[in-house]
Amino acid sequence: MSEEQKSTKTRRIVPIGPYHPLQEEPEFFKLIVEGETVVDMEINIGYNHRGHEFISPELTYDQIPFLVERICGICSNSHPLACVLAIEDCAGIEPPPRANYIRSIIHELERIHSHLLWVGLGGHFIGYNTVWMWAWKYREHVLQVFEMITGNRNHYAANKPGGVRRDISKEQVPQVLAALDLAEEKTKLLTNAVLDDPVILGRLANVGILTKADAIAYSTVGPTSRGSGVPWDVRKDDPHAAYAEVPWDRVVFEEGDVLAKAKVRLLETFESIKIVRGCLENLPDGPIEARIEEIPPGEGIGHTEAPRGEVFHYIRSDGSNRPLRHKVRAPSFMNIASNVVAVRGGSIADAALTLAAVDPCYCCTERMAAFEDGRLKYTWNDLLKLSWQKTERLREKLK
Amino acid sequence: MSWSGWGLAFNFLIFPGFLFSAVVGLVLTWVDRIVSARVQYRRGPPVFQPFADLFKLLLKQTIVPDGASKTVFLLAPMLGLAAMCLTSGLLFYVNFNPQGSFVGDLIVLVYLLGLAPLALVIGASASRNPLSAVGASREMMLYFGYELPFLLALLVPIIKSGGAIRLGELIVAQQAGGPFLYSISGVIAALIVLFTTQAKLGYVPFDMAEAEQEIMSGVFAEYSGASLAVFKLTKAMMLFLLPLFMITVFWGGFGDWWAILKFLLIVVLVVLMKNTNPRFRIDQALRFFWFILGVFGIVAVVLAFVRL
Amino acid sequence: MSRLGLWGLKKSPWVYHVAAASCNNCDIEILELLTPRYDVERFGVVLVGSPRHADALLVTGVINRKSLPRVMEVYEQAAKPCLVIGVGTCTCSNHMFKNSYNAVGPYDKHLPMHAFVPGCPPKPEAMILGVVKALSKL
Amino acid sequence: MREAEAGLRELIPEADVFEHNKRRLYIRIPREKITQAAKFLHQERGMRLSICTGIDTREGFEVLYHFSEDKTGTMYTLKVLAPKDDPKIESLASWFPSCDWIEREMSELLGIDFPGHPNMRPLLTSDTDWDKGKYPLRRDHERRAEEHED
Question: Which chain C residue has the Cα nearest residue A45?
């Protein structure tokens, strides 16, 4: 069968998305395949375009961190951090040291949770649901730390121009450390389990290779480029927050395949744990925010290393309390484009894995309201009738 | 039991055919889910869960996608189900009545077990969905992959029983001389059949035909409502029948109560294998079946000839 | 007979997850529901890979011009009856994107919604409550 | 003075360098020189393109090419101005794939034309009922904020 398909060379299009279980977000990849081999790919994005850069100039500098936080729910500290760094760069102020340390702590905790999340999803993508469940179980420890120190499991709202919004109290420090110990132990277990499994290695090694030259040409960032031997890491290159003051190392692998990216992420988790420990141990006393009187006309650039790579924010100010222009660049914008070269020549199964390997992030409280209140009960037939009616109307609309 | 008239209808539809194997199969899918859940630190669903799934699916709307050929699309699931009912009837009949089996029923059984993946391929191809087409081609390739070692492994009991292709004779031979499993060739052959069972069931690591994350449930992508329910039921029955087949051929049939324990052991083994492996790529799976299991199959056959 | 189906639907709602211009957070929290801490498989909830198998669509995010036709297509493809549950504040009110040129929500303008779960993101417990409340109306 | 800065000054004498602080450099260059400057920064100095920003200003459309020199952690920003009546800037995408998407995005959201782009389709808004000829990031785009009461 496979020989026959190869000989006829019929090209088919296999769509991945816009709604596809591979991705949590809508995105459309058109794989052009011969048999099972992918020969080319088209990427169609924009299902997630919400117009942040359009809304941002309508908001004040104090409001913008909340907006950019909602670019992405996984790296929901990276965008506000880069944004406030840009604002501080524009205004020329330095946050107090304690604020810097707290920023680093939250940023690295986020990296731990994000990398564990990716490992879990990576397991899910290759059909290994046990890895998914285990990784996410251990990730819960980090989310609980977040809930304790910032008040929310996601969307921490930690940063503000000039400092941070919430302090970490003395009582919380040992609790965070305890959670970290637990997370480290379990992550070690997971790392060994994942990297020693021959079948996993068989699936990941030599798959979706992104060469160093391509990584540079496409300007990929973060683990995607560090897995291809390009050592760019904004935390080391352009140190901000407290990254210059605690010891940690870059993680770089040369192979460029999916396995290298997975290794980068798993080992970075331990580096992050190291950073958080270092920061908590040396946490300086003092205020947590610097007062900003005004933002002078000018421009500012802030960038930071999100779990997926460099987040870049550019602010142009005209001296008022709203920016004139606010440019946001999420890491996946660069990384996803590089998929086109990485998937060529692989099979469909590999393509799915390769697309997932860059940890794509395309976008980069509790009350309950029942839709119609009262004691209205639907019967099975009512439900069917209602659904069918609505479907008919939709069909009319779609035509 | 008899092979005629109402008795035959009863055998086919109620016991041990459709109804009985369906109920047991559904309970087994619950076992599958609860064991998976426990491996993953979860609680898992209640025992009635598969039945709730089934009733819901049966009563939901069944959509025939635009451009699909309606008859083939809707009849394909029935083909697999009918094959499984027959398999069930045949297996139970020969186990309780070893003298009554007919010549070549082993071969009939092999083909009946092959009908279920064939039904999937037919149905998926009829649905005109590109992802289903990929799933169908994978299922077909996988079928060609595992059928070779499967047949080689089945040669082992045939050789050991002195050339019998009647299931009844195999059972009688095992009752007389001990199960075929308790020998080197038997163990190798049984392991091959275990892997094949995994592939026939479409469980990880051989679930590439319905890879949810790659090709959106692949072969099942366009099925909904009752026809999906029939497919799920077929899979559930296979989860019941394939270990049963294995016991019949290798582990002395199920004449005694130990069979239940053996049976559960095989099911749990299959489920554990499912939960501790990632999915193979289709070419890796083919290589595994042909070049590793195929070689082992030949070794087992040779060993069986020298009575090891 | 239909009561049996209704019982089945209540006991085994298979969900399909539709993200339309969301920030990923609700989506991740939906997946979180399946993992050991919350484990909604206890209640028979399973995440399925094809909209044809879905009994409930969990929609997240502000809907935008490009994703709107796709979301409606997904709803049309789903086998009926199919509940639609909006997760997150974005689905109820467009959240902070109401001034955007690309947001065309909220969802109830376009789809028959059965429940909304507000929150940014709602806690997993709230999502479970949302699905339960939507089902209890059946 | 930084090596890259000196090289750039030598290559483009009319470059106007503004040092915001020691890690942020803004260099205004004429529109025609962008390919030359970008090639120098990327191919000779090994810099990575972070992103391009398009801004609608009073003088015209300003496009900023943010290059990051990761060895020193310095951001070099090339500034190019295109007048409003002729919003055209030479495309870099043919030799520099990083520019592909961002140029497409700028052309659809800001209406700047990039002649020489190999694949100038809309990036975010293809196959939608997008209002052609309306560019949301221009200053004259209508804002919905006034329609609503906050």
Answer: C66
State the average pLDDT over residues B63-71: 77
Looking at domain D3-132, does it have CATH number 2.160.20.60? no
Chains that touch D (3 or more CB pairs under 8 A): A, C
Residue A199 has pLDDT above 50, yes or no: yes
> What are the pLDDT digits (tens) for B116-154?
888 888 888 887 777 777 788 888 888 888 888 888 888
Other CB atoms within 10 Å distance of the CB of residue B5: 8
* Residue C135, token pair as written in the block: 């089902």
Q: Where are the alpha helices (DSSP H) in D1-149?
A: 3-11, 34-39, 98-109
Beta-carbon pairs below 8 A across chains C and D: 20
Residue of A190, A74, A77 whose CA lies nearest to A138? A190
- Å from C93 to nearest chain B CA? 31
- The better pLDDT of the pair C98, B270 is held by B270
Residue B176 CB contacts under 8 Å (≥ 6 apart), including other chains: none
The pLDDT, as a whole number, for residue A1 is: 39
What are the residue boundaries of the structural domains of chain B, listed by start? 5-305
- pLDDT above 60 (res B243): yes
Q: With an 8 Å Cβ cutoff, are C65 and D128 in contact?
A: yes
- Stretch 45-104 of chain C: residues touching chain B, C-beta under 8 Å: 48-50, 52-53, 55, 77, 79-81
pLDDT tops 80 at residue A188: yes
Among B113, B109, B95, B81, CA closest to B253: B95
Write phi, then psi, for B161 (nearest 5 degrees).
-90, 5
Strand D48-56 to strand D24-28: parallel, antiparallel, or no bridges (unpaired)? Answer: unpaired
The answer to whether residue C7 neighbours chain B at the CB level (below 8 Å) is: yes
Q: What three-state secondary structure class fits A41? A: strand
Alpha helices in chain C (DSSP H): 2-11, 25-34, 67-77, 89-93, 124-136
Which residues make Cβ contacts (< 8 Å) with residue B175, sequence separation at least 6?
A: B98, B252, B253, B255
pLDDT for A10 beyond 70: no
Report yes or no on chains D and B touching (3+ CB pairs under 8 A). no
Q: Where are the domains of chain C?
A: 10-136
Q: How far is A261 from chain B (nearest CA, A)?
A: 18
Assigned architecture for domain C10-136: 3-Layer(aba) Sandwich (3.40)
**Do the two chains B and A touch, given a threshold of 8 Å on CB pairs and at least 3 pairs?**
yes
Disruptive mutation site among C18, C24, C42, C110 for chain A (greatest number of A CBs within 10 Å): C24
Residue D125 to residue C99, Cβ atoms within 8 A: no
Question: Nearest Cβ partner of B61 from C35, C36, C80?
Answer: C80
Neighbouring chains of C at 3+ CB pairs under 8 Å are: A, B, D
Highest-scoring range by mean pLDDT, A14-18, A370-374, A386-390, C51-55? C51-55
B137 in reach of chain A (CB within 8 A)? yes
Å between D145 CA and nearest CA of chain C:
6
**Which range is least confidently modeled, A385-389, C87-91, D57-61?**
A385-389
Contacts of A299 in chain D (CB under 8 A): 20, 26
Element counts in chain D: helices (H) and strands (E): 3, 5
Q: Which domains does chain A have, with CATH numbers?
A: 52-332 (1.10.645.10)
Mean pLDDT, residues B50-60: 85
A374 pLDDT tier (thresholds 50, 70, 90) = very low
Residue B285 touches chain A, beta carbons under 8 Å? no
Region C17-46 average pLDDT:
83
